[in-house]
Amino acid sequence: AYDDLDYVTYDVLGDVVCGGFAMPIREKKAQEIYVVTSGEMMAMYAANNIARGILKYAHSGGVRLGGLICNSRQVDNERELIEELARRLNTQMIHFLPRDKAVQHAELRRMTVLEYDPEAPMAQEYRTLATKIDENQMKTIPTPIEMDDLEQLLMDFGMVDVEDDSVVRTKAQEAALAVV
Q1: How far apart are CA 22 and CA 20, in angstroms?
Q2: Among 20, 55, 89, 91, which is most exposed with the fewest C-beta within 10 angstroms?
Q3: CATH numbers and ranges of domains, the chain
Q4: Does 15 have pLDDT greater than 60?
Q5: Rg (CA), the chain
Q6: Quick check: 34 and 67 in contact, CB under 8 A?
Q7: Using a CB cutoff of 8 Å and minimum separation of 24, what contacts does 171-180 make?
Q8: Are 67 and 91 in contact (CB under 8 A)?
Q9: pTM (2 d.p.)
Q10: What are phi and psi of 62, to 5 degrees?
C-alpha cells in the first residue's frame, strides 16, 4: 500500500499515541511527521504526546519530527506560543495557518479549500505549507516536555492566570486529600 506514495496523512488523536499511529513508524514507513496543533492547552498537550511517541521510535525506526503546524484558533499570542513550544520540542513551527471562514465554507460543501476556492488566500496558505513540507530539511528527534513545563509555558504566555492556577492546584490537592 505504501510503495508508490510520496506523502500519507493521518488524523490521529494526540492523547492516544498507540495503535494506528505507531504502526507505520514501527514498520519504518514514516520518515518524517508533522504535528498540527494550536495555542489551546489540549492541542499542545496532544502535540507533546505525539512528540513523545516519535521519540520512542526515533532511534529504532529513523522517524523524525518535521515540525509543528499551527492551525490558528485565534488564541492570544498563539504564533509566539507555538514557536516557543516548537523550540522546547527541538523542532520548528513550519507554518502558521490563520483562521479563515473559507475552511468552514468548503467543509459544508464536502470540499477542500483548494477545490472550493482555489484563489482564496487560504488556498495559498495551503500551497505554501505544502511547499515548506516538500522542501524541509529540518527533521529532528523531539524532546517532549513535562506537563508542569507545558502548564508553565501557558502561564508565561498569559494563557492561565497565576491566581487561577493556584485555585486549581488547591482544588486538586483538596480532592486528592478527600480520597485518602
Answers
A1: 6
A2: 20
A3: 22-145 (3.40.50.300)
A4: no
A5: 18
A6: yes
A7: none
A8: yes
A9: 0.84
A10: 80, 5
For residue 144, the SS3 value is: coil
Name, in order, each residue with C-beta under 8 angstroms of 107's C-beta and a sequence gap of 6 or more.
none
Can you read off the three cell numbers belonging to residue 29?
514507513
Question: Is residue 36 classed exposed, middle or buried when 0-12, 13-18 and 19+ CB atoms within 10 A define those classes?
Answer: middle
**Using a CB cutoff of 8 Å and minimum separation of 24, what contacts does 119-127 make?**
122/97, 122/98, 125/95, 125/97, 125/98, 125/100, 126/97
**Contact in structure between 71 and 38 (CB atoms under 8 Å):** yes
Is the pLDDT at 170 greater than 80? The verdict is no
Residues forming a β-bridge with 123: none
- The pLDDT tens digits of the residues spanning 69-119 come to 999 999 999 999 999 999 999 999 999 999 999 999 999 999 999 999 999
Is the pLDDT assigned to residue 167 strictly greater than 60? no
Q: Which of 37, 48, 29, 32 is nearest to 11 (CA)?
A: 37
